[in-house]
Batch of 2 targets.
Target 1
Amino acid sequence: MKIESLEIPEVKLLFPRKFEDERGFFSETYNQEEFSKAGITQDFVQDNHSFSKSPGVLRGLHFQREPYAQDKLVRVLRGRILDVAVDIRPNSPTLGKSVIAEINADDWNQIFVPRGFAHGFLTLAPDTEVVYKVSRPYTPSAEHAILWNDPDLGINWPMDESQLILSAKDTNAMSFKKYLETVRYEN
């Protein structure tokens, strides 16, 4: 498996090997020993699977607060997504910066998003299926969202806002400034 660090080195792009023949293919998408060599030492406790019918479905920017914060290993079974991870670690030199990567079934790539990042994705193709492992179970009381189009984050989404399909939770998420205020209040 090829593993690369992105602009924020804690976020990793992974390329599992795919062995194809006339029957189909085989791929090892998770290997604890290989991940550990690359500095990914989390134990995953839950798998999630989402399906989006249309291009333009935007899910995020989601995170869970400590002690329920999640590491995520995201891959696409069918379709394509633009995956976004925003550094929300209060003392990080890259606080508020984002890492963006296209993850798709054709390239058979994955992205590792560590805890301390708000995460979201935009579907770029119809009938997109995304699966991801998480290191902590879903905990509704710890779940939060930061506004996907917050100007302080400056994320360049490749679709016009009128083309996007969002949940009420994502439409009404807190601003990045509000998030920073809540972090200062907690510390």
Note: The chain has three helices and 13 strands.
Target 2
Amino acid sequence: MNLIDMRTRPDEDFKWILHCRDHFTKYSWAYALPSKEPRYVAESLLQLFFQFGSCKILQSDNGKKFTARIIKDLKIKWPELVILNGRPRHPQSQGLIERGNSTLCDILGKCMHDRDTSHWGSWLLPVIYSMNTSIAQGIKYTPFEVVLGQRPRLNMTLWQSISDQGIEDDDDIPPSIRKQLEDAPDTDVPEMEGMIGIGE
């Protein structure tokens, strides 16, 4: 995990991004925070852990005092959680997350520029989704595929068409759209037995 300082470009109350990345799958999570106080970081980590389970090792370069305060409560719920602290502002010890931070900031900046907005908080989840549905070079799959065991559903045009027609009931789907849905490939992700899981 790492904190990205957005104080020079605050989005209303949000001034920080907590970026968490799984070392094995390259799957990312991001949370907009009002400050870097440990309680906000801990709340976000609790959301992550209760959705995906605790990681085996939580690595941060945000200093022992910082992580100790967060982990004190997390270790009560997950006593086997191991904490590793890298050196602050030392990219070599935090290569994965630092590269992820760079990618996140690049995509987020482009997204904001293209839409002429300074509200990065509302674009954080779409950017993370984009990162998680892009091929990760080290594993040759998208992080989405490895974690969830299926390809991401990217046919937004089809779903937008359903929405534009005001379709809310299965029975109202026109035959042409129903055929497209039926012809959509099932999960043809290669066998990844033992590969799915956070922090493994």
Note: Residues 154-189 form one domain.
